[in-house]
Amino acid sequence: MCVLDFISTPAACQLARDVEALGFGSIFLPEGAGKESFSQAAAMLSATDRIVVGTAIANIHIRDAVAAEAAARALHAMYPDRFVLGLGVSHPQQVEGRLSLNYGKPLSAMRSYLERMDAVPSFIDEEAGRPPRLLAALGPKMIELSGRVADGAIPYLVLPEQTAHTREIVGPDALVVSEVGVTLGDDAATNLRRSHAHLSVYDGLENYRASWRRQGFDDTDFVPGGSDRLAEALVGLGPDGAKAALDAHLDAGADHVIAQVLGDELASDPRPGLERLAAVLGLSAR
């Protein structure tokens, strides 16, 4: 997963080429501070040859469902089997605070959005069909929805046990694409600091706190940046810890794992860490 808000679109295309050259199979784009994920995905697909580009996640509150479906089908038609549409409800703080939109009930909002997407006429890019559609899903009801009316789920900031629970709910045929934060620093203190900085973006959001409570954590873990227990459990620390974390989610039933390399800042260039991770995973440069 790569945050693109802090670099230009041409620079993002070069980043995609570099990630592809390292041997990684996918690159997933969040949609947070400003960059629009469909246009970014189109640019990166056009700049690369084989890598899969996905949205993780595209915010359903900032674009009409019909426009989202039509755009997804267009990308799938232009780049067959290389685009994955990840959708999510985001957070009240962003939707109502930054965007001044109505957040509503997450499950109802997602169900309605998917129904409107499905109502787009089949003749729109009929030959290509539509790409895989995944939902950012933490709670059991959203996970169930992702397996029943979408193609699977994207668990985020979860333990391997939650990936296994997600697999159990969605069944054997749905996709489970888990995100795992990893740090590739040179010492334990640097890796733990980066993990805490990563969690500081999320520790005040109630949907993540509720998810972590279901996974066995409690309010003592929700200090700014998260407790050491939380930071060490959710993030793969150091080269060996990174590989172990990624393997654990695959062993738990994930079809694919998104590695989010954490630097000292959100704007940090992920390539040095990705180069180290590629070596640890034994990927072949292309």
UniProtKB/TrEMBL annotation:
Alphabetized InterPro entries for the sequence: F420-G6PD/mer (IPR050564), Lucif-like_OxRdatse_MSMEG_4141 (IPR019922), Luciferase-like_dom (IPR011251), Luciferase-like_sf (IPR036661)
Luciferase-like domain segment(s): 13-220
Top-rank lineage group of the source organism: Bacteria
The species this protein was found in: Nocardioides immobilis
GO molecular function: oxidoreductase activity, acting on paired donors, with incorporation or reduction of molecular oxygen
PANTHER family documented for this protein: CONSERVED HYPOTHETICAL ALANINE AND PROLINE-RICH PROTEIN (PTHR43244:SF2), PTHR43244
Database matches in CDD domains: Tetrahydromethanopterin_reductase
Protein name in UniProt: TIGR03620 family F420-dependent LLM class oxidoreductase
Annotated Gene3D superfamilies: Luciferase-like domain
